Amino acid sequence: MTRHPVAVSAPGKVLVAGGYLVLDRSHTSLVFGLDARIHVHVQKLPPSTGVVLSEIVVRSPQFRDAEWRYGYREVKDHGGFQITQLTGHSTSVQSRNRFVETALAYTLSYISATSNTMIGSASVTILADADYYSHPGSTARSDPAGFIDFEESLSEAHKTGLGSSAALVTAFVAAVLTYYLDENQLNLRSDSGRRRLHNLAQAAHCAAQGKVGSGFDVAAAVYGSCVYRRFSPSILEQLGEAGSPQFSKRLTALVEELDASNTWDMQIDKAAARIPCGLRLAMCDVDCGSETVGMAKKVLGWRKENADEAALLWATLQKGNEELAGELLRLAEGTTTDSRDYKNLSDIFLTIRSLIREMSAEAEVPIEPKVQTELLDACCGIHGVVGGVVPGAGGFDAIALLVENDALLSLQQFLDTYKTPSNNNSGQGIGKIRLLGVKQDWEGLRSEIVETYTDWIR
Which 3 state secondary structure label does DSSP give 50? Predict the structure, then answer.
């Protein structure tokens, strides 16, 4: 069977409202997809010296020494596919890429369990839009699609917090599925096909992370902007390890929801996530980044030890988050874009930030650190900047702002000269501030034209 090259992309995300609350099914979150995307291209592996039978080569050519070669074999007792990183190649990096490795094992296991497809060797290329990283390097090597050489290794690159791992896993799973399966076996444009992609990508992403996350980032990568309520963590309890007996059968039952008592119960409301036409999302990278796993553990520990206090604060935050989504929807459905219409929206942002700082102080976690508070306050003092937050789990990731369309230049000029106040003694500082080129995007996963990536494929 002749397989043709395929290419797909998945968007990044910004969790504007619902950080930490998104971990609990009692609450919802407001997540916007971004027009910064992770792209995955798959084609037949060209014959060359040293290529072994049953080999999949994965490259990320924007980074130095970013190539992983994998051997694969099907495990007995329906254990799915075992993936082995091959060493000894001069071009291969020796460190593991757990997201790629896990996504590959899960996807091949699902394909083998649901079809008679022969898994042949393949070449996979991963490309990232520039705003996923703080130091985009030289633009000397760029193409019409805008991809650039980051001029550093992956381990040296500073992420901006746009959800690269979820977008990568989602696009990777979708591209491999599309390459090996016919459209009549799995159509990712259909509701059922997209749901199966979501379920498989969620399972793979959780396994790669080593924990069951809320899944909002994968949901945004598949479906785009939405109001999201998480799935029950118990859904993944019986899946087990890849390669274990009956794994591929359990994975198929999970992805295709064959067990009526164990179906995915997340709620994804795309119609409820809107931004009025007079506004756009803007993000300012502070070149730092946060260890969000450790922060989440501390916040959840505080919540457990102070149940009554935390329950009241979270309920108040949920109310504020709902008011934010509701006000954005009301404005989006209106007919006027006069800046005076945004006063209520600005007040809601201020209320949410006040509550987040209260939780930050009580849990002793820098959800909105002082330097970020100063930056947000300064930005919100610019005419046309309606409001903003430190999104998601907070810390030192890029801040998110809602800005009137004609105020973007003023914001850029302000940030070009902004310096953290010299009397700040808040501990960790922020790096060079850069207005990212991203804005909101409503589309989730999409197919791409394979010729777009010609300059980066080999």
Answer: coil
